[in-house]
Design goal:
Chain lengths: 302, 302
DNA sequence: TATCGGATTATAGCCTCCTGAAAAACAATC
DNA sequence: GATTGTTTTTCAGGAGGCTATAATCCGATA
């Protein structure tokens, strides 16, 4: 029964893949293959398999390994699909507390350990992550300083303006190279969203798809600094957007824009695509500005 | 005599400031003021003061505090100026080892602890820092993966191209606001360098001045994402440039460019300054490209 | 021969106690 | 009243043992 954190993470991901149909029913799951994919050893994989067998998602044949069950009850599938949203981890709680002024600007590790009831190691991971994302920094002596970077409503604008600087530029890098497959995959995702996903998928997934779209394009620049800068601001954006209600009308327009960009790129019109990207971000900024203003009036003090 | 790490860091910085003339002879050093500047309490400051008094750099008057000595022997001054270079900490050694292929791509914490003879906590700080800078990431199971981001000669180009995208854009941000004082201070630093500093200052200090120049301008954009992105790539650049010989001729041209940018800004010609910045970076890139090529032939294998 | 299954080895997180050092509170001096 | 000097409190890093769990090795099986 000992489901370690790692193996349960893995089993959750596998379950996802099976539920979505990424992994076909009846397929043989080779332990080593899966281990390679997740870049871990076979040990946690086997644990994950065992856990999934208990749920009836996999079947085991001694000395032959695990196979995806031939049919999986609908109720289990929907159960799996919903499970994603629950993953509100300590980090998000911490971030949320900071964004909502529940924490002082200067905090000691002790105070945080007490508040969140965490061990030293876990806490220092937490802080390292926040530091990595750019909103916490260790003071020289004791304590940490939490930065207001992502707190203000203006941060929305700032992120969009930053993206306006890097994303179109990334597409014009001399090392930029179209990745047809990635592009096709992006197109599929956006089309699926337009064909109803916008209204059915969970908010988190929708935001994720949007971020992935932009990041994949940045990746094609083949300049890792553009990509990692974008990933960075996107992570921070997510912290904030997590709290705002999603505007599904806006998402539809976004997807249309995204598809337009894909089309331009497919035709090799990189320069046009870059321009269009800039406009796309700029219109998002204008819209955001209004949302942010509203948000600031309703959620911020003074 | 217990000189903690923090207080000795502080005393080193103070000594620097005094040696360079940033802090005048005979000046009264108020403990609280210095503490505020370094964002620590008075305790480590007082220790630093005591250490500096022992070296004869400060004088103590009971109940009145510490004062900079009226005259500091030349030999002590040059000693201080050289001391900077020695501060090659574990992090730099670690980075160096990775850049020179002394470390495998996948490493366990144990292996690193043994190699560098570090405690758990220090090592995890080290790795957190590398992760923060973007060239290490924790694997899902045990171990860390070191990323080749900053290893290749191309990374030089990539960083400069990234900077070409963000730095001129930062100056055109609607929130951009000139900071006259900061500008004046930058001008002074650059002028000092042209007036001989280029040949006398330690390499590290020179690189530092350059980075600071650009970062201060990015700060004036009042968009923290531009600034932090620049700081990020600068840190990485430093890891690499640390190993290459410094070209003092090139530095002179750089300083001239920097002064030109300051002049444009002082006249309110922000647009021109932005253009000039782009050209400035682009010429550095062209030059770098040659250096990097040379560097790759001489330092890299295959 | 590729894959699985079980046994062994190694890793890293957690816990507790301990201590040097930083922060904070308080007292003294000009 | 601002600043220094002293004391007390709090903090976080270090060491070492313990344990869950990940990696690895090796034999078994189809």
């Amino acid at each position: 029964m000992s489901t370690s954190e790692l193996s349960s993470r893995i089993s959750a991901r596998l379950a996802q893949d099976i539920a979505v149909g990424e992994i076909a029913c009846g397929a043989h799951l080779r332990a080593q293959e899966v281990a390679d994919r997740y870049k871990v050893s076979r040990t946690p994989i086997r644990e994950a398999f065992a856990a999934l067998e208990e749920q009836g998602i996999l079947r085991r044949f001694p000395n032959r390994g695990y196979f995806v069950a031939d049919s999986i009850p609908q109720n289990i599938i929907s159960e799996i699909k919903e499970a994603v949203d629950v993953a509100r981890d300590e980090y998000q709680i911490f971030a949320e507390d900071w964004l909502t002024d529940q924490l002082p600007e200067i905090v000691t590790e002790q105070a945080l350990r007490q508040r969140y009831n965490m061990t030293k190691a876990r806490l220092s991971d937490l802080l390292a992550r926040a530091a990595r994302e750019g909103w916490a920094e260790r003071k020289e002596g004791y304590g940490w300083r939490l930065l207001p970077v992502a707190k203000t409503a203006e941060a929305f604008d700032e992120i969009y303006r930053f993206r306006m600087a890097i994303e179109p530029a990334a597409m014009l890098e001399p090392s930029f190279k179209l990745n047809k497959e990635a592009l096709a995959s992006l197109r599929r995702t956006q089309e699926r969203m337009l064909e109803g996903g916008v209204n059915s998928l969970p908010a988190e997934k929708l935001l994720d798809n949007g971020a992935t779209f932009h990041e994949e394009l940045a990746r094609m620049s083949n300049n890792p600094f553009f990509l990692s800068a974008l990933e960075r601001v996107n992570r921070m954006r997510r912290l904030m957007e997590y709290r705002t209600k999603i505007d599904r009308q806006r998402l539809t327009e976004q997807c249309t824009d995204h598809l337009e960009i894909v089309s331009l790129l497919e035709q090799g019109e990189v320069l046009e695509a870059s321009f269009f990207m800039r406009r796309h971000l700029s219109s998002a900024l204008r819209r955001k500005a209004r949302t942010a203003k509203f948000w600031s009036m309703t959620h911020q003090k003074d």
